[in-house]
Amino acid sequence: MINSPDPSRITTIERHILDEQYHYPEATGALTNLLYDLALAGKIIASRITRAGLIDILGHAGVVNVQGEEMMKLDEFADHTIISLHDHTGRLAVMVSEEHLDLIPIPERYPLGKYVLLFDPLDGSSNIDFNVSIGTIFAIYRRITEEGPGTLADCLRPGHEMVAAGYIIYGGSTMLVYTTGHGVHGFTLDPSVGEFLLSHPNIQIPQAPKYYSANQGYELYWSAGIRRYTHYLQGSDGQRKRLLLRYVGSLVGDFHRTLLSGGVFYYPSDTQDPHKPHGKLRLLYEAAPLAFVAEQAGGYASDGTRNILDIQPESLHQRTPLFIGNRDLVEKAEEFIREYDRGQPTAETVES
Ligand code: FDP
């Protein structure tokens, strides 16, 4: 039986975020509150996900439930929850979501703030029906325009300008992992008290990696460099001790495991779909925030040729190849790409 947490030994996310604020004497508290709002969104989304398996008896998306409310699909629900918790607080100038083609403006009736929030409300959604871990990813920047509604220029920023980033994983338990540039900290939701409690302070990627993670179903479409890199990770070229393969197919799940166990996750360019020449993952609200987390945990993220955090985005939904995890393993991928795939294009700028 698990006892109730001992209040003298627990750190709630609220207290932790407040303590972080002391690193910035000039802070107004807006970022602190923005992070609380995200934690609250995470709790609401988690409670809805917990009931996802009951959808057949509670009603499908598009169907009116017993209260006369129309049931929303989970990804729409997550998107709606995050937007409605953030649009009126006066902390944001504009938002970007994976679910919306264009910028999400702050309604005119509400005050504008100095931050910009970019998010993927429910990443890994093809796993929803199978009770497999899914997540929310977020990135926060300070706006650069001086006044008025936030613009594209406030959002199309290289990752190294980010002030905070993180993710919420809805798995066996719900966890929120975030960084404001002072290490990476993980909190587990204790459903009995409804609070995120500090469970993983100062996360560092273990130096002895365990796993590599990629969808090897695409190997046929990979470049020579990526195929050779994979053989290197498998130890079959005799250059290193083999790593074991794990692949959830949900970026947050695969990244979270990589962060805690060491290893590398990659979703490279492939030739399968001419509309997606550089893989599937999005730069602004998938690759970049996780790259910030990885770097703060002692790891590294690359598009195969350069640091993900150095890429200047050109469009909101642009895709990028991603290699993320232990620094030496990611740099090894860059090495293989340099050697065998010379001249490969990197981040794509086409909207699709
Ligand atoms: P999904 O399509 O299920 O939303 O970016 C989306 C994503 O999942 C990532 O979470 C995941 O890493 C990747 O796509 C899985 O793609 P494959 O099915 O092509 O492996």
Shape: globular
- Kindly, what is the distance between the CA atoms of the first and last residues, rounded to a whole number of angstroms? 50 Å
- Main sheet overview: 8 strands, mixed
Number of discrete helical segments: 9
Order of SSEs: HHHHEEEEHEEEEEHEHEHEEH
Q: What is the mean predicted local confidence, pLDDT?
A: 90
Task: Throw out a few tags for this protein.
single chain, 352 residues, alpha+beta, eight-stranded mixed beta sheet, five-stranded mixed beta sheet, 28% helix, 20% strand, globular, binds 2,6-di-O-phosphono-beta-D-fructofuranose
Question: Can you walk through the features of this model?
Answer:
- The structure is a single chain.
- The chain is of the alpha+beta class and 352 residues long.
- Helices cover 28% and strands 20% of the residues.
- The protein has helices spanning 13-21, 30-50, 55-58, 74-86, 152-155, 224-233, 251-261, 283-296, 327-340; strands at 92-97, 104-105, 115-123, 134-142, 164-170, 174-179, 184-190, 195-200, 211-213, 244-245, 263-267, 300-302, 322-325.
- The strands form 2 sheets. Strands 2-1-3-4-5-6-7-8 form an 8-stranded mixed sheet, sandwiched between helices. The protein has a 5-stranded mixed sheet with strand order 10-9-11-13-12, sandwiched between helices.
- Strand 9 (211-213), helix 6 and strand 10 (244-245) form a beta-alpha-beta unit.
- Helix 2 packs antiparallel against helix 4 (74-86).
- It is globular, with a radius of gyration of 20 Å.
- The N and C termini lie far apart (50 Å).
- Bound molecules: 2,6-di-O-phosphono-beta-D-fructofuranose.
- 2,6-di-O-phosphono-beta-D-fructofuranose binds next to helix 7.
